[in-house]
Design a protein that fits this description.
about 400 residues, alpha/beta, Glutathione S-transferase Yfyf (Class Pi), Chain A, domain 2, 6-stranded antiparallel β-sheet, 6-stranded mixed β-sheet, about 40% helix, globular
């Protein structure tokens, strides 16, 4: 799959933008702050329903505008699909697929991307929420319906937390909160599926992760992934505890002769009820889980060098791309490298360029063209202050998109 055309209206610093792309590598060049990352961010949003830089959609809408619109024509095997997304300041976001109304969560069925960015260093060195977001973004692309499950889980979690906070303020005891059992049942039903899906994903990532790391570093540092589950006693979000000291499991463990995920989740909520009432927050569930990253048997977060941390993060993204490539009916995902080469030494630049060279489409952003290895620098788009200059275009396609701008 590749992005054939991209159209933006009131997205970030773009009043309008129209671009045509081809398979292969394209470099988007511009000084920092000009808007080159905004272009690739919009493509990534269609695939993951989120930004790799901000958590709120409001930041994606141009100042003074009520909505932002992203349109992309995706091509594969001689067929094209038009995806359109409208992000609204007020009210729900809207989407269309080939001019027919759709739900935004339907878009990842068609758009598959893997994005590398400087922020990816936080996958290794940052908080558990970063690693959860990485896994969930990949899950949504592989199993789009999970976007709905995740949204439902967040709604139930919010309601349950509100009830806990209200009970704490009123001084209610656990026995007086019979309505909490209803929310527990719904939370467990949704959360257990998310936990199991994450465990399966971590298991599937292990082999391609090891291969991708070797391709970048040319050494075997034994990169490993180890899930850390709050329902089994870990509390990754509590800085006073060591996530690696307990609560670790694997997909095989979950299938072994022990209670299932839902049963363990329900038991954890029962055991934690008193503490939850004291703190007014839900203390177990996929929203508090983590995945421990190991190199040579040691936690990468505390022991890996800067170069090793970068290599681990890149290897995770390459492994994600490999999984999408394996099970997608639309071919390769679009690879996006956002200011990545500036962070790498010459050897790692060359090895990364070789590792991604066979993907159908690679979009690269760079402040300086010289940072990009020569084999990837054949086509160049210049960005200046939210304007596309010197870009390859498809005038006929642009006119069509512009004429249909009111369709979403």
């Amino acid at each position: 799959m590749h992005v054939a055309r991209l159209s933006l209206t009131d997205y970030r610093n773009y009043r309008t933008a129209e671009l045509a792309f081809e398979p292969g590598a394209t470099v988007i060049v511009g000084r920092n702050g000009q808007g080159k990352t905004n272009l690739v961010e919009s493509i990534g949003y269609l695939a993951t329903l989120g930004s790799h830089r901000v958590s709120s959609d409001q930041a994606l809408i141009r100042a003074g505008a009520d909505a932002a619109v992203v349109r992309a024509v995706l091509a594969h095997g001689g067929r094209e699909v038009l995806l359109e997304l409208q992000l609204n300041r007020q009210g729900a976001n809207r989407a269309q697929v080939n001019r027919a109304a759709a739900k935004p969560r339907d878009l990842p069925r068609y758009a598959h991307t893997v994005l590398f960015a400087p922020e990816d260093l936080a996958i290794v060195r940052g908080e558990p929420s970063v690693r959860r977001r990485m896994l969930d973004g990949l899950l949504v692309q592989r199993i789009p319906r999970l976007a709905g499950v995740m949204a439902d889980y967040e709604r139930v979690l919010k309601q349950r937390n509100s009830l806990l906070k209200s009970a704490r303020a009123r001084g209610l005891a656990a026995a007086q909160l019979t309505t909490l059992d209803i929310w527990d049942e719904r939370l467990v039903g949704l959360g257990a599926e998310l936990i199991d899906r994450r465990l399966e994903l971590v298991d599937e990532l292990r082999e391609p992760l090891a291969a991708a790391y070797r391709s970048i570093v040319d050494a075997d540092h034994r990169p490993e992934l180890q899930p850390v589950l709050s329902i089994d006693g870990a509390d990754p979000d509590d800085e006073t505890t060591d996530a690696a000291s307990g609560g670790t499991t694997t997909a095989l463990d979950a299938a072994a002769d022990r209670p299932g995920t839902a049963e363990r989740f329900a038991a954890a909520l029962t055991a934690l009820r008193r503490r939850e009432l004291e703190r007014g927050v839900t203390l177990a569930g996929p929203h508090r889980d983590d995945v421990l990253l190991l190199l040579n048997g040691l936690p990468a977060k505390g022991y890996a060098s800067h170069g090793e941390s970068w290599s681990f993060a890149l290897a995770l993204r390459l492994a994600s791309a490999e999984l999408l490539r394996r099970d997608s009916a639309t071919g390769d995902p679009v690879l996006v490298l956002d200011d990545v080469f500036a962070e790498l030494d010459r050897r790692r630049r060359e090895r990364l360029a070789a590792a991604i060279g066979e993907y159908e489409q690679v979009l690269i952003t760079a402040a300086v063209l010289e940072d990009v290895p020569e084999p990837l620098a054949g086509r160049v788009i210049q960005i200046d202050a939210g304007r596309v200059v010197g870009a390859p275009t498809d005038p006929g396609a642009d006119v069509t998109l512009e004429a249909e701008a009111s369709g979403v």
